[in-house]
Amino acid sequence: MATPHITADVGEIAPLVLMPGDPRRAERIAKDILDDPKLVSEVRGIGAWTGTYNGTPMSVMASGMGIPSVCIYATELYRFYGVKRIIRVGTCGAMSPNVRVRDVIVATAAHTNSSLPHLFVPDASLSLAPSFSLLHGAGHAAKAVKDVPVHFGPIYSSDHFYLVKPATTEGLIKLGTLGVEMEATGLYATAMAEGGEALAILTASDHLFDPSQDMTAAERETSYQAMVEIAANTLVF
């Protein structure tokens, strides 16, 4: 069975999925960490690869950019392909002074300016959070990473890349927000709606207040080893 956005047959996508935003990063991750990765879907250039990680079936599939895109793919994976766990592995902009570029952030909550939470429950502001079991597993997996700082805390999912206002940023930082990105809210909300598990683990690729730290586009595509190691080991925890 195929969906409008995924052409894999049922069974060709594993119950455990790593989900970067960038299709090229998805391909690189799949070939780096999976044994015998097989391309099982490539609709609109959004690739999905399935193989094994230390003997456990695992898939890597891109989500594209933004909350609407990740909601499409996550919904179809949970609802039609029997996926149980999805971990977003992507980049974010650091906003906390305690986070430096190349540090890893495990998102314990996803604040947002998106209207998505109100689509699920009108007149209510949902608290969008990951599953406890994945968050617990990430805590254990992070202990094995010695050369990259790992931070646990809330992040902010913005609906507009260029409209993160200074007043908003200031308020978020005061509340302990670590970074800003564009997908975690969609993944967390979809997991809640579909009865799946989700977590976002991010690499800080730039800093809102110190551009001298920023990664190049090429570095963003390749500087993910610690993040992916934590995420893969969390999926199988």
TrEMBL record:
GO cellular component: cytosol
Domain Nucleoside phosphorylase: 16-232
Protein name from the UniProt record: Uridine phosphorylase
GO molecular function list: purine-nucleoside phosphorylase activity; uridine phosphorylase activity
Keywords, comma-separated and alphabetical: Glycosyltransferase, Transferase
EC number: 2.4.2.3
Presence of keyword Glycosyltransferase: yes
CDD domains from the UniProt entry: PNP_EcPNPI-like
Species name: Propioniciclava tarda
GO biological process: nucleoside metabolic process
Catalytic reaction equation(s): uridine + phosphate = alpha-D-ribose 1-phosphate + uracil
Source organism superkingdom: Bacteria
